[in-house]
TrEMBL record:
This is Nitrate reductase. GO terms for molecular function: 4 iron, 4 sulfur cluster binding; metal ion binding; molybdopterin cofactor binding; oxidoreductase activity. Residues 2-58 form the 4Fe-4S Mo/W bis-MGD-type domain. SUPFAM superfamilies: ADC-like (SSF50692), Formate dehydrogenase/DMSO reductase, domains 1-3 (SSF53706). The keyword NADP does not apply. Keywords: 4Fe-4S, Iron, Iron-sulfur, Metal-binding, Molybdenum, Nitrate assimilation, Oxidoreductase. One of its GO terms (cellular component) is membrane.
């Protein structure tokens, strides 16, 4: 029977409402929820393909346990799994104290899950060792808001973005990372072309497509830029003296500091023209309303807190806060990172925007939970936590809904830590992740579409997440796993006492949690599942008795500080921690692709999402390629002080010379060699403890790996992937991806200095289905060349080229286009890039995922004289989710003007 369930997208912090179409057992489709105030029916390329993700072969179905590091995990039942875990945690706590265990959780958990974990760690175990991946993401914004404004609360609404006269988008590639919000901005700018948009990013991203001014600053120089802007605003008298006098403190120190930031000094520091700096200041100073949006370009830095506060300074000096279209608006990355901050899911926080270091706050929460006291010892933030794990201080580690073996910096250290820890529990929806390999106990979690709860998006709006279908196998909801474990641990640590974890439904957790927010800045005590059901998702504060949420904070200009005044923070510019030098002259920047999500456990199961970018490529400025005599697609070794990675290079003229860009998504599963974070550094901001993921000194050099390998195989791609991946450990380079739409295939590119032994190739052939059926083959053992192509019903279904891969693009094209006739067949195994007389079309790259339109088709359309409307009409591209429109516009802009 056809049913529709309203829920929330599980990807980014825009928090779009989705309508899940299903039959009670399987999800068939998703659509944007027209009634949801975040997206009004829109979805981006990731949200609209949710139903295509989640291949069951990649999911965790049953708990698995191993009883020794050298042993393999075996299937077990929930009862044995959680009894074992409780015993191990209780032993560690009894022998080594509560701080010998730790919980590392995630901004993708639901508010109810977070609350359960917090109560477990702080009230039952008695440790503050509970931190989350938000440490890599939002913790600099938390510090910025708290110290500048008094509370961790983004003061704006999405509507303010549409209302603003001048927008400063800094260190955010919204076009990729918050696409539906970017669509709203595009529409607002189309309605009000006088709206001014400034983008500050070392790269020319798709977000720059909307910009009136793009400042391609030197990586890490944002604080200098903000102080330079302040300097000009002051000099030009474009500040709001009345606001500063009445509602702020600390201005004098900033005033003195920014005197040193003259336009010429700052322009040089940031490597931008002084006129551009002045124009930027003028746009801000002249604007009736000014709003800033930022994300990881500011937060992921050893100066992350300073960058946040220096930006907020600009709002305070101009009085641009607490009014429509104005304010400092940090974009949240993960779907419920906000909920994590609210429930106290960083080691230094407590539920209800409280601080673990504050004795009164501890007492309030302890009293509410009915325990004598909460632990005083500060908990470990993520980077230090993994250092302590590596040092053997943490005896049992519980990881939920995050993949630290891919996403934390300095992966060599992280891998060692996970291998050292005596007992690692991983609570995961997809058992394919890099972290799962390290689990002693692996617990299958329900995921999107299968669980109930709530999340808060970037604009403080609390939405419901609803279950459409049952979780596969024995997977369970996160809060249920946590509470079941907590009850078993209670029996060991507090025998005979009544349980504090007797919940049957998630709304019981929500209701218990919300009372802890009463009277606090985020007061959401008036919210309930029933109320959201009745009047829709609401923005906090929403105190008991409210009729509606709060779209805008600080409209009365009173700030939640001791004095009621906001604070200017005067901190000098500090350069990034790792400077370029002779051995490492390039700066490595890492970030998002349009269609992939983090470690790709979910998006990596939908072949269609690889259409836009198929494999890991290192982007370099064309000049840097030329200096090093590198050609497009050549393999390089990318090195930093901490590790190295082999992958192909590509010329990217959106980068400045001296900069390199690598998408953050590739971990060891998709790209052999521990992924991009083998290169990044663990150094972090002194206050927020957020690591500098956007800035590592690197160098590249060509590698010659004469023995090349290419394979393509249809059907059962996830299980083949899992089985094949370990066979590539001895290769210097191995990259895995998916291709196709209706008939997805696994694609493998690999290279080595010499051929593997015959037995290994034989094993690969078995897993590729090339050991039986209609297989054409060619072998030249003397040159270690071997090729196999399997054809069924006139179509290629599997192939591998070993030793020499000249024909790979042509063969991939043949596979994609279908039939292979007798004439073509003669050339399949030839050492040519294509049969004589035929040219290989470049492998088509999907630009528009919804309508399946390639970049090549768009280019042909442009060459034929079509404009954006013509392309939309004739090809259909850009007419559905719109995620590809900025890129199409960029292609159009590159065309020479017709004479
Ligand atoms: N498609 C997609 N969307 C996502 C995610 C995803 O994985 N995929 N993840 C979500 C999450 S958790 C997050 S946190 C957000 C991240 O969203 P964003 O922060 O927007 O994305 P990033 O690509 O990490 O980085 C943004 C930009 O910062 C720039 N940058 C680097 N260094 C500097 C600098 O020193 N100064 C300035 N001003 N800019 C700099 C980079 O060039 C990059 O373009 O995206 C969310 N949305
Ligand atoms: N170099 C570099 N590194 C980065 C960044 C960067 O820009 N550059 N960005 C950083 C940032 S901002 C972030 S947020 C992190 C993200 O890093 P991670 O948190 O490691 O990212 P994900 O891959 O989203 O991990 C979430 C995991 O939860 C699993 N999962 C999904 N749904 C559920 C569920 O309902 N329950 C449970 N238990 N599990 C589930 C997924 O399969 C996935 O493995 O990466 C950080 N790392
Ligand atoms: S913008 Fe895209 S990824 Fe983000 S919540 Fe909306 S649909 Fe999901
Ligand atoms: Mo994030």
């Amino acid at each position: 029977m056809h049913q529709t369930t309203a829920s929330t997208c599980c990807y980014c912090g825009v928090g779009c409402g989705v309508l899940i179409e299903h039959d009670g057992t399987r999800i068939h489709d998703v659509a944007g929820d027209p009634d949801h105030p975040a997206n009004f029916g829109k979805l981006c390329s990731k949200g609209s393909t949710l139903h295509l993700t989640g291949d069951i072969a990649a999911r965790g179905l049953h708990p698995e346990l191993r009883l020794g590091k050298a042993l393999a995990r075996a299937r077990t039942d929930w009862d044995s799994a959680l009894e074992h875990a409780a015993e191990r945690f209780a032993d560690a706590i009894r022998e080594h104290g509560p701080d010998s265990v730790a919980f590392y959780i995630s901004g993708q958990l639901l508010t109810e899950d977070y609350y359960a974990f917090n109560k477990l760690a702080r009230a039952l175990v008695g440790t503050n060792n509970i931190d989350s991946n938000s440490r890599l993401c939002m913790s600099s914004a938390v510090v910025g808001y708290k110290r500048s404004l008094g509370a961790d609360a983004p003061p704006c609404s999405y509507e303010d973005i549409e209302l603003s006269d001048c927008l400063l988008i800094v260190g955010s590639n919204m076009a990729y990372a918050h696409p539906v919000l970017f669509r709203r901005l595009e529409e607002a700018k189309a309605r009000r072309p006088q709206m001014r948009i400034i983008v500050v990013d070392p790269r020319r991203t798709d977000t720059c497509d909307l910009a009136d001014l793009h400042l391609a600053i030197q990586p890490g120089s944002d604080v200098a830029l903000f102080h330079g802007l302040m300097h000009i605003l002051l000099r030009e008298g474009q500040i709001d003296r009345d606001f500063i006098d009445a509602h702020t403190e600390g201005f004098e120190a900033l005033d003195a500091l920014v005197r040193d930031y003259s336009p010429s000094v700052v322009a040089e520091r940031c490597a931008i023209p002084v006129e551009a700096l002045q124009r930027c200041a003028r746009l801000i100073g002249d604007a009736p309303s000014f709003l800033s949006l930022w994300c990881m370009g500011l937060n992921q830095s050893t100066a992350g807190s300073a960058k946040n506060s220096a930006l907020i300074n600009l709002h305070l000096a101009t009085g641009q806060i607490g009014r429509p279209g104005a304010g400092p608006f940090s974009l949240t990355g993960q779907p419920n990172a906000m909920g994590g901050r609210e429930t106290g899911s960083l080691s230094n926080l407590l539920p209800g925007h409280r601080d673990a270091g504050n004795p009164e706050h501890r007492q309030e929460v302890a009293a509410y939970w009915g325990v004598e006291q909460l632990p005083e010892t500060p908990g470990l933030p993520a980077i230090e936590l993994f250092e302590k794990v590596r040092a053997g201080k943490i005896k049992a580690l519980w990881i939920a809904c995050t993949n630290p073996a891919q996403s934390l910096p300095d992966q060599r250290g992280v891998q060692e830590a996970l291998a050292t820890c005596p007992f690692v529990v991983v609570q995961e929806a997809f058992f394919t992740t890099e972290t799962c390999r390290h689990a002693d106990l692996l617990l299958p979690a329900a995921s999107w579409g299968e669980k109930e709860g709530s999340v808060t998006n970037s604009e403080r709006r609390v939405s419901r997440v609803r279950r459409a279908v049952p979780a596969p196998g024995e997977a369970r909801a996160d809060w249920a796993i946590t509470c079941d474990f907590a009850r078993r641990l209670e029996k060991r640590l507090r025998p005979g006492q009544p349980s504090r974890f007797d919940y049957e439904r998630p709304d019981q957790l929500f209701d218990e949690y919300k009372a802890l927010t009463r009277g606090r800045d985020l007061d959401l005590s008036g919210l309930s599942y029933a109320l959201i059901e009745r009047i829709g998702p609401q923005q906090w504060p929403f105190p008991a008795g409210s009729e509606a949420g709060t779209p805008r904070l600080y409209t009365n200009r009173i700030f939640p500080t001791a004095t009621g005044r906001a604070r200017f923070i005067a901190e000098p510019y500090q350069p990034p921690r790792e400077l370029r030098e002779a051995h490492y002259p390039l700066v490595l920047n890492t970030g998002r692709l349009r269609d992939q999500w983090h470690g790709m456990s979910r998006t990596g199961t939908a072949a269609q999402l690889f259409g836009h970018v198929e494999q890991a490529l290192l982007g370099l400025h064309p000049d840097d390629m030329a200096h090093r005599r590198l050609l497009e697609g050549q393999l390089v070794r990318l090195r930093s002080r901490r590790g190295s990675l082999v992958l192909p290079v590509t010329a990217d003229d959106r980068l400045q010379a001296g900069q390199a860009f690598l998408p953050m998504h590739w971990g060891d599963r998709f790209l052999k060699g521990l992924g991009c974070n083998v290169l990044t550094l663990p150094e972090h901001d002194p206050l927020s403890k957020q690591p500098e993921l956007k800035h590592a000194a690197v160098e590249v050099e060509r590698v010659d790996l004469p023995w090349q390998f290419f394979a393509l195989v249809e059907q059962d791609v996830q299980s083949r992937f899992s089985a094949l991946r370990p066979l590539f450990e001895a290769f210097d380079y191995a990259s895995f991806s998916l291709a196709g739409r209706d008939r997805p295939a696994l694609i493998i590119h690999a290279a080595a200095s010499q051929a593997p032994d015959a037995a290994q190739l034989e094993r690969m052939d078995q897993l590729l289905g090339l050991d039986e059926g209609a297989v054409l083959s060619y072998d030249d053992p003397r040159r270690a060349i071997g090729k196999r192509v399997r054809i069924e019903a006139g179509r290629i279904v599997s192939l591998r080229l070993a030793g020499e891969t000249a024909a790979r693009d042509w063969l991939k094209g043949l596979w994609q286009s279908g039939q292979v006739d007798a004439e073509t067949r003669r050339w399949l195994l030839a050492p040519l890039s294509a049969p004589p007389g035929e040219t290989v079309a470049a492998v088509e790259r999907t630009l528009c995922n919804c309508m399946n339109v390639s970049q090549q088709a768009v280019a042909r359309g442009i060459a034929a004289g079509m404009d954006l409307d013509g392309l939309k009409r004739e090809l259909g591209c850009g007419t559905s989710c719109g995620s590809c429109v900025p890129e199409i516009k960029r292609m159009l802009a590159r065309q020479p003007e017709p004479a």
